[in-house]
Design goal:
Layout (H helix, E strand, L loop, with lengths): L1 E4 L10 E4 L4 H16 L10 H7 L29 H28 L7 E2 L5 E2 L12 H8 L22
Antiparallel strand pairs: 1-2, 3-4
C-alpha cells in the first residue's frame, strides 16, 4: 500500500511517497481520524507550525479571530512543545548526524581542492580536472541609487520557511 502526498502548491519536489504492507486496522484508524476532522465544528489546539496549517488545515485563520493560528516560535517557545513521535525523534537525530558528516566531508573536499590548483587535464583513471572563471555577482550600487533618487526602491520576495534542527536539552 502506498500513500502519496502532493503539496497544494504543486511543487513536485514536495511529493512524498510512503509504502508499507497493508494493515486494515491502521487504515480503519486513519479513516476514523479523517472523519472526525471533517465533522469537527471547533478548531482543535494547534498541533503543527503555522507554515503547514495555512495550506492544510480547514480551521487555519491567520488573525486568530475565527480559528486556529497554528504554532509559531514567535508565540510559543520551541521547548514548550514536546514532539512525542519516536520516528520524528529518530529522524531529527539522523538529520543532525548527517549535517555533521556533510560538514566534515566539505572540509575534506576543500582540502583536496587545494591539490588541484593550476591543473588542467585528465587523470589516469579518466577524471577530467579543469578550472573555469566565473563572473562575480552583479548588484545594484544602492548608495549611488540613493544619491540619484533620494531613496532605494526595494522589492520583497515571497516568504519561505527555513528548517532549524539543533541539539537541545531533551524531555
Amino acid at each position: 500500500m502506498s500513500l502519496v502526498a502532493i503539496a497544494r502548491d504543486g511543487d513536485e519536489r514536495d511529493v512524498k511517497v510512503h509504502t508499507e504492507d497493508y494493515n486494515e486496522s491502521i487504515a480503519l484508524e486513519a479513516l476514523g481520524w479523517l472523519a472526525a476532522v471533517k465533522e469537527a465544528a471547533e478548531a482543535p489546539a494547534p498541533e503543527k507550525d503555522a507554515s503547514y496549517c495555512q495550506f492544510y488545515c480547514k480551521f487555519y485563520d491567520a488573525s486568530g479571530q475565527m480559528g486556529c493560528v497554528g504554532l509559531k516560535k514567535e508565540r510559543t517557545p520551541v521547548t514548550d512543545v514536546v514532539i512525542a513521535d519516536p520516528d520524528i525523534d529518530r529522524n531529527a537525530l539522523m538529520y543532525l548526524q548527517l549535517a555533521l558528516q556533510i560538514k566534515e566531508l566539505e572540509k575534506e573536499q576543500d582540502s583536496l581542492k587545494a591539490t588541484f590548483e593550476g591543473l588542467l587535464g585528465v587523470t589516469n583513471s579518466g577524471i577530467e580536472v579543469s578550472w573555469s572563471t566565473v563572473r562575480g555577482r552583479e548588484t545594484v550600487d544602492s548608495e549611488e541609487v540613493e544619491k540619484l533618487l533620494g531613496y532605494v526602491p526595494k522589492k520583497i520576495g515571497a516568504e519561505s520557511h527555513r528548517l532549524s534542527i539543533k541539539q537541545g536539552g531533551g524531555k
